[in-house]
Design a protein that fits this description.
The protein is built from 15 helices and no strands. It has helices at 3-19, 25-31, 37-64, 67-84, 89-112, 118-150, 152-163, 166-170, 188-204, 209-218, 221-246, 251-268, 275-302, 309-333, 338-359. By secondary structure, the chain is mostly helical. Helix 1 (3-19) packs parallel to helix 6 and helix 4 (67-84) packs antiparallel against helix 5. The mean pLDDT is 90.
Length: 362
């Protein structure tokens, strides 16, 4: 079994465990710990400032101690702090996110080492996303069911224990290292690419707390879990197909088209009133995700310098992390009106689509 297939299995384990908890953290802070919804939004904003550093930490560690070692360390510590959040979720969940983000940078760096061209990277990221989304297909549904029946602490315990199963699978991986330089200056092409990428991450962050709040308000928490299952299941079935097809096209055009689809799909949420309509819209959202996500990661990797790939991926992860969390915070604050919330999201997606055309140079 090659390293990409091993990492696909690992991604399934980690994503399954985290996704049983992640969509419901904001909801639990509001329902169980009685934080007003505006404070939940501010919590996610503060979470950005603290945990985004985890991406940079993970990138530097991937270069200094190696990709595999960094993934092993961050997996163990993320699991530990998730279990400690049974004591104080507001504090320890921050540390869980910090080390989960560190894992993300190390994992992206590991994948970047496996191919020297964008086409190969798109296929690799597409394969790994299948594993991750197999976990995402069942994790939120199980988490939503257990949340409704047994409460938030139950899903924390399950997630914290299951995520540790990934460690034995990580140990056989190769442990490439990069340079030990502390300060680097990212290239102009890479820096320009980060501008539409941060807008894209704002959009991708909507399929988290904002979507859960929306679905729970107009439908139910369980329905939100089922929608995540549709999303994850589609990626498992079709991500390789989309990766193979779109790896042959112009990359910036593909990214632009994907963001237009995102814009239309989120705008639709204003008008949806039935479960089947919501399911159809989630299918549209997933199509956009399957186009944009692997290409965005592949292009970022291709624009990085191999000796400092970990640091580049750390900065890329920092950008993505800030965008995702800012997106969740902004939409949470705007959730008083679905017209304002999803109209704003749709506009940002269109803006990202345009900027990809002008700022992507590869």
């Amino acid at each position: 079994m090659n390293d990409i297939n091993k990492l696909t299995i690992i991604s399934f384990i980690r994503t399954f465990s985290i996704s049983t908890v992640n969509p419901y953290i904001g909801l639990a802070l509001n329902q169980y710990y009685k934080l007003p919804i505006y404070l939940v939004g501010l919590y996610y904003l503060g979470l950005t400032l603290i945990t985004a550093i985890g991406y940079v930490f993970g990138g530097y560690m991937a270069d200094i101690i190696g990709r595999r070692n960094s993934m092993v360390l961050s997996t163990i510590l993320a699991s530990l702090f998730l279990l400690l959040s049974l004591i104080d979720p507001i504090i320890f969940i921050l540390f869980m996110y910090f080390f989960s983000n560190a894992y993300g940078s190390a994992s992206n760096t590991f994948v970047g080492d496996t191919s020297n061209n964008v086409k190969g990277l798109i296929k690799s990221f597409s394969r790994i996303r299948r594993g991750a989304n197999a976990g995402w297909a069942i994790g939120p549904a199980i988490g939503g069911f257990l949340y409704d029946k047994y409460g938030f602490n139950t899903i924390i315990m399950i997630a914290g224990i299951v995520s540790l199963i990934a460690v034995p699978f990580l140990l056989p991986l190769t442990n490439n290292k990069g340079s030990r330089k502390i300060l680097i200056r990212p290239s102009k092409k890479f820096s320009k690419f980060l501008i539409p990428s941060i807008l894209t991450s704002i959009i991708m962050g909507q399929l988290g707390l904002p979507f859960v709040l929306y679905a729970s308000r107009y439908f139910s928490v369980s329905i939100a879990g089922y929608m995540f299952s549709i999303n994850g299941g589609m990626v498992v079935l079709f991500q390789d197909l989309f990766g193979n097809k779109f790896s042959k096209f112009n990359y910036k055009h593909s990214l632009s088209i994907g963001m237009i689809i995102y814009s239309l799909a989120y705008l639709n949420l204003i008008f949806i009133s039935r479960v089947y309509e919501l399911a159809l819209d989630v299918i549209l959202l997933t199509i956009a995700e399957m186009i944009v996500s692997p290409i965005n990661n592949a292009v970022a990797n291709a624009l990085s310098e191999s000796g400092d790939r970990g640091k580049y991926m750390g900065f890329f992860g920092l950008t993505v992390g800030i965008g995702r969390t800012l997106g969740q915070s902004l939409s949470t604050e705007l959730s008083f009106s679905k017209y304002v919330e999803w109209g704003n999201v749709s506009f940002i997606a269109i803006l990202s689509s345009v900027l990809y055309l002008f700022l992507t140079e590869i």
